[in-house]
Amino acid sequence: MSDPMIDEWYPVALFSKLDAAGRDTLLMGHPIHVARTGSERVAATEADGRSLPVRIRYGHVWTSLGEPKKELFDIPEADEPGRRLVDVGVVRVRCSPLRAVENFLDIAHFPFVHTDILGAEPHTEVEKYDVEIREKEDEVWATKVKFFQPQAAKSAAGGITTDYMYRVPAPTCSVLYKTCPPRPGEWDVITLFVQPLTEELCDVWPWMALYDDEADMTDLIHFQQMIFLQDRSILENQIPRRLPLDPGMEIPTRADMTSVAYRRWLKRHNYTYGAQLVAQ
Ligand SMILES: [Fe+2]
User: Fold this and answer.
1) How far, in Å, CA of 6 to CA of 11, rounded?
2) Centre of ligand 1 from the C-alpha of residue 24, in Å
3) Cβ-count burial 70-105 (b if 16+ within 10 Å, e if not)
4) 216 Cα–ligand 1 center, Å
């Protein structure tokens, strides 16, 4: 069976927390079991015992119900020495996995949802930035994104204009690059890996690769969890619940250009799991 959705890699567990007893979970409606079988080994199986392909990367265990045509996407920064790799944990959200990614790509909500942390009134305007679908990499990229933030990161003292880049390397994953206060010229990496449990329920696994020697690991995790819990209440109330892929169903603004490109890219790939195709 070849299916562009089935053949993707998906995150299904945090590697450091996985033991031999394992984790029973759902992947696109299919019950699966993931368990550690050795110090660097993990097995993933379907309910009928069929074993699934596994990768251990970026702090997480990845699997697929199909036969992935591509290797799991690369995040070169993950291997750079000196970065702190942060397993944030899991946030279960009653929303479409595509909605979770779309929200992550949206800067305009910062002042209203993450008030006085990632944004603040009256600094609500999103300046012009660049968005493209990179054909060779087959990824969505938004660059030259700038936004004023009262507290951009745990390591930030006071407000700064933060530079961002957003990248969508897989339908349910996004990588955010943002200005790194202690290291000008470098980018902090914050990812959102989304596990589709069903079309309207997902486990969100944020992960970070930061230049931050100061902050306590627990504080870093709590900071990021707080941000995602603020997003959860928004995500669980979105109408329609699934992400419309057709233009015209929701009216885009300049801030939404990344979302528009993301939807167009999903449509091009016939990626419809969690999408709404017909207006209701
Ligand atoms: Fe948010």
Assistant:
1) 13
2) 28
3) eebbebebbeeeebeebbbebbebebbbbbbbbbbb
4) 22
Segments of the chain with pLDDT less than 70: 1-2, 152-157, 247-255, 279-280
Question: Residue 30 Cα, ligand 1 centroid: separation in angstroms?
Answer: 29
For residue 200, the CA-to-ligand 1 centroid distance in Å is 18
User: What CATH number is given for 79-276 in this structure?
Assistant: 3.90.380.10
The CATH number for 1-72, chosen from 3.40.50.2300, 3.40.50.2000, 1.10.10.10, 2.20.25.680, is: 2.20.25.680
- Which pLDDT score, from 0 to 100, does residue 1 have? 47
What's residue 154's pLDDT? 67
Would you list the domain boundaries of the chain? Answer: 1-72, 79-276
Instruction: Kindly report whether the global pTM for this prediction surpasses the value 0.90.
Output: yes
In the structure, ligand 1 is a single-atom ion and the residues with CB under 5 Å from it are: 231
Ligand 1 center to 110 CA (angstroms):
6
230 CA from centroid of ligand 1 (Å) = 7
